[in-house]
């Protein structure tokens, strides 16, 4: 009986290991490259309004500024199409931010300086952090919100370090927050562009200037990212191109 129990546990463990391998799609030594070296912002450009950004303790620190009418973006100088991106973020409070990808320059008539997919970091009671949002023209649109996913809404932890994983491979867009799947969508609106961090515009609210957002350990796989792609547990949605 004891041998049977040990055998069953061993088989269960092996099957679980196989399942995890299939689920996470990771192989040994994935070819990660760091977008941020922890020392300076030489690989980035700042665009938009007067939001402030600096490097401290190996982190990118983002700071909202009063009476700004446009968002500020910290964007890569290089462009990317298919990739897997991981980054850690800590939001100290009521600071709306996000990780944008496949960003393109917006026309002068737009209310933002760049367009692209945005993985929203949402500090409101709604808790849609990890959903995908699109600022476009003079309006905005949720492409994939978290209204129907209670587990995903609880994935992000305020004032703690949170790990984001974004897989953009062809029209497939997948997102995880702290290992919990939040987005699994098909969309073809954006195909190639910059990666950016968002500093939200702000009215005359000086008390909010004390709130900061921190980013660190920003890394990317661009070589054969499909080899390291992950099976998502989120509901697959095909989002029509607007």
* SSE class: mainly beta
The residue-averaged pLDDT reads 88
What is the general shape?
globular
Q: Could you give the distance between the termini?
A: 62 Å
CATH class identity: Mainly Beta
Rounded Rg:
19 Å
Strand residue content? 35-45%
Number of helices, counting only DSSP H or I runs of 4 residues or more: 2
CATH topology: Jelly Rolls
Largest sheet geometry: 9 strands, mixed
Overall description:
The protein has 242 residues and is mainly beta. It has one domain: Exo-inulinase, domain 1 (Jelly Rolls), CATH 2.60.120.560. It is built from two helices and 16 strands. The strands form two sheets. Strands 1, 3, 4, 6, 11, 12, 13, 15 and 16 form a nine-stranded mixed sheet that branches. A seven-stranded antiparallel sheet has the order 2-5-14-7-8-9-10, with no helix packed on it. The longest helix is centred in the N-terminal third of the chain and has 23 residues. The chain is globular. The N terminus is likely disordered.
């Amino acid at each position: 009986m004891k041998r049977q129990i040990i055998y069953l546990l061993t088989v269960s463990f092996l099957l679980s290991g196989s399942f995890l391998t299939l689920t996470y799609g990771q192989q040994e030594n994935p070819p990660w490259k760091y977008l941020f070296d922890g020392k300076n912002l030489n690989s980035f450009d700042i665009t938009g309004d007067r939001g402030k950004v600096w490097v401290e303790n190996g982190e990118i620190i983002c700071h909202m500024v009063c009476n700004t009418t446009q968002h500020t973006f910290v964007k890569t100088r290089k462009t990317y199409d298919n990739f897997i991106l991981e980054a850690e973020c800590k939001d100290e409070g009521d600071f709306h931010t996000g990780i944008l990808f496949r960003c393109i320059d917006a026309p002068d008539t737009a209310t933002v300086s760049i367009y692209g997919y945005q993985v929203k970091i949402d500090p409101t009671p709604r808790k849609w952090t990890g959903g995908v949002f699109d600022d476009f023209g003079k309006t905005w649109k949720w492409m994939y919100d978290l209204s129907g996913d209670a587990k995903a809404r609880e994935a992000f932890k305020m004032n703690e370090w949170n790990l984001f994983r974004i897989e953009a491979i062809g029209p497939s867009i997948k997102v995880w927050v702290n290992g919990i799947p939040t987005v699994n969508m098909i969309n073809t609106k954006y195909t190639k562009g910059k990666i950016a961090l968002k500093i939200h515009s702000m009215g005359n609210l000086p008390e909010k200037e004390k709130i900061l957002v921190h980013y660190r350990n920003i890394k990317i796989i661009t070589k054969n990212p499909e080899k390291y792609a992950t099976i998502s547990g989120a509901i697959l949605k095909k989002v029509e191109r607007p």
